[in-house]
Amino acid sequence: MDDNPIDHMITAYVLKTYYQLWDVIVMESAVSALSYLDSCKENVNDLPVLIILDLDMPELNGIGFLEKFALYTKEFKEACKIVVLTGSEIIADLEWMKADPHVFELISKPLNKNALAGAIKIAP
Known about the structure:
The protein has one domain (5-116): 3-Layer(aba) Sandwich (Rossmann fold). Helix content is 44%, strand content 14%. The longest helix has 15 residues, at 5-19. The chain starts with a helix and ends with a helix. It is an alpha/beta fold. The protein has helices at residues 5-19, 30-39, 62-69, 74-79, 91-99, 117-122; strands spanning 50-54, 81-86, 103-108.
């Protein structure tokens, strides 16, 4: 999820072109992404296997998203791998993200074709 349409296009392009992931759902805010995840509570098989999270978003930032994500069940959290994609250089925020147990990887923007290789391999 990201609030920048250019980043949406780059991420979708990389996922489709280099990883053949065609079922890409774009959320423009953490709030809408959490609503979507809430709609999947009854069936974890409907959850996305990979969430690409921007750190800096309006309404609720990436840290706020992760705080709410932590409240889901263990089974729910294990079904989704989270990669944080950010252009932030705020050391405290980056360290917080690296320390979060639900963040699989922290990647700097712009996304490149090799950046998600580890995350895609582990996605169920």
